[in-house]
TrEMBL record:
It catalyses: a 1,2-diacyl-sn-glycero-3-phosphocholine + H2O = a 1,2-diacyl-sn-glycero-3-phosphate + choline + H(+). Keywords: Hydrolase, Lipid degradation, Lipid metabolism. Its EC number is 3.1.4.4. Pfam families: PLDc_2 (PF13091). This is phospholipase D. The keyword Protein biosynthesis does not apply. One of its GO terms (biological process) is phosphorus metabolic process.
Length: 174
């Protein structure tokens, strides 16, 4: 039994590579806005976003996030936003087009997925170190009324894996 214990300890120590443990935080409901705002504000290199729907309706948290992205762009941060495009939902297309036009006015790159594919994903990648992924759309309802759940992950490997996925979606129609 003692030999088995020593053998198990040996294998555990061989596999312990001092890898960093990801920092993970659950972000629900009204905590999303201050979390995403702070992550945008502290980004220094790039911000990549995929969003199902982003809808500007007057001055609210969506328009505040739009201004945060514009401010980040003015600081020289590369920003790319991928939005859904629908073959059947004209309201979604209208909302996303208005949001996209608002970003493009400030030199932010925006693309739409194929209308034949629904991109229901909602995630952001920040500087190859941080990921925010979950259920929150950028709409008044999602940010200020709905029950939503997201996960903030600080981990380079996960961020890189999601960046590869984002770039695959981004370059799909090129």
């Amino acid at each position: 039994m003692k030999k088995l214990f020593i053998l198990v300890i040996f294998f555990i120590s061989c596999n312990n590579r001092n890898e960093e443990i990801p920092e993970i935080k659950i972000v629900t409901n009204r905590d999303y806005f201050p979390t995403i705002r702070d992550v945008i504000r502290t980004s220094r290199e790039y911000i990549y976003f995929t969003m199902f729907v982003a809808k500007i309706e007057g001055y609210n948290q969506v328009s505040m996030l739009l201004y945060e992205l514009i401010s980040a762009k003015e600081k020289g941060i590369t920003i790319k936003v991928l939005l859904d495009s629908s073959s059947y939902d004209d309201e979604l297309n209208r909302s996303n087009s208005i949001f996209a036009d608002s970003l493009r006015k400030y030199g932010i790159e925006v693309k739409f997925d194929s209308p034949d594919t629904t991109t229901h994903a909602k995630f952001g990648i920040f500087d190859g170190k941080i990921v925010l992924i979950g259920s929150t759309n950028w709409t008044y309802s999602s940010l200020e009324r709905n029950n939503e759940v997201n996960i903030l992950i600080k981990d380079k490997e996960i961020a890189e894996e999601l960046k590869i996925y984002f770039e695959k979606l981004w370059g799909k129609d090129d």
